[in-house]
């Protein structure tokens, strides 16, 4: 090419390794460019300034998708987010500030991963914001939250404690390396599939009433928060659109909320030709605030559900342990196993009964020779190990009690508020397109109420077991002092015999806390446990009971022995809180995933000048409605002085019912 026809060079970059340059690599409004390199069998994403300096470099994708390559990328309308599309049809949203992954998106393709079609085009359209004229300004900064709605109620509640993420641990490289030359691998906390597939907007802890990572933010953090707010406003109502080789169109509201739009267009080769007539897709529901309001509720419910799942997992790991550390319940089991081993190997006991020996020592103060030898000379009974045992169990049970009362129960209550509003919407014809089943939502509410009851029960049981464990450890320490020969006078025992005996029966080897993490899914109704079921035979009348009371007052000898009072036995009830939370998450995800198809149900596509309904990949269930139209007119002859006309399109055959 001659110099007269050559383009003017804006900058010259010297790269350490070969890189790929995509057509959308340049930022539309900033002097930034994204380059893709491949090192060690995986792609790396790097952001460069046109002056020649590199801002950051990160790995693309997650560890389980390390071999994926970058197919395309697109910039958000605000220029603060980069959407990277991999050949595995997964999308990652990267922050332009440091390259960290803000969100991982995936499209629910049908079939196996080998049959996933390649993405051939990606666009990120800016949202349309009509200027507000003649409208009272938002003085109170409600941010689109309607007064009296679920989100407005959540704003008035205290913020839930922030859960520390794995990525928040600072390393020496993060503290001392130059910000412009950092090379880091973007790692994200492993999320279950139910959370990954939950349709949601960009993370908003404020809507979910969850505290931010740090309440003591400096000027730099406040500046980043203001920039993030401005970015959210600019990206609001934007549409991230992708098309694959089949001609299927997929859309994400705000670049993150999957609208489940599966429009099968013409062949993609024909679609990209210049002589192909344009196809117009009309989504009337997006012009209303219903989709955004529901998306915000879905996002808040997702954050709360993920919050509950992490807290329950933290409590379970603290009690049962994990691959990296021993759980609090296993310390007592290992102590008993060490005692059994001592009695079997050194004293010839074939089947030692540890609980019987400890009970005999508790009641008589005299134990067997092997038990006395173990208490006085074993390493497990040293003061250091006893202190470690005490601190581990105390910390675990205290965490269980506090997390159940201060985190799990409030989060479930907030989730109940959201689903309660969804239940109200399910009865309104305006939200018929969202496919909300009132009975299904109501069953989720009952499960959440069951979770609140079981969590409160767990806190009470942890508080009771902590007291019994303290008494048991006091008993062990007292017997250790008594068994060791010393000139010092022995102090009187300060433990409760009944509490220690109860811990020996249920607590040392098999704790009742285990029932909250093992067993089947709870099915009971908390309301049925609040009263005693009447016996089959008729009881005494009120006047008979009063006569017995008066007789007891006149003759005190009748009060010396009280009659046996029956009580409810709840030991056979399933109380698996972990399984219940998993089921709540699965059911809630189905509700919001079904509702995300509302925009597709309202959409029409113009082909050759005529409007035709789209062909979604997921067919509507029989009897599901496509749209609802209503009109209310005044009529004095009606009981309520108004007459409502309702037209519902309920089947794919085009049948319409008017009423």
Automatic annotation (TrEMBL):
Pfam families: ANAPC4, ANAPC4_WD40. It comes from Boletus reticuloceps. GO terms for biological process: anaphase-promoting complex-dependent catabolic process; cell division; protein K11-linked ubiquitination. Residues 27-102 form the Anaphase-promoting complex subunit 4-like WD40 domain. Residues 281-478 form the Anaphase-promoting complex subunit 4 long domain. InterPro entries: APC4, Apc4-like_WD40_dom, APC4_long_dom, Quinoprotein_ADH-like_sf. The keyword Cell cycle applies. It comes from the Eukaryota. GO terms for cellular component: anaphase-promoting complex; nuclear periphery. This is Anaphase-promoting complex subunit 4. Keywords: Cell cycle, Cell division, Mitosis, Ubl conjugation pathway. Transmembrane segments: none annotated. The keyword Cell cycle applies. Signal peptide: none annotated.
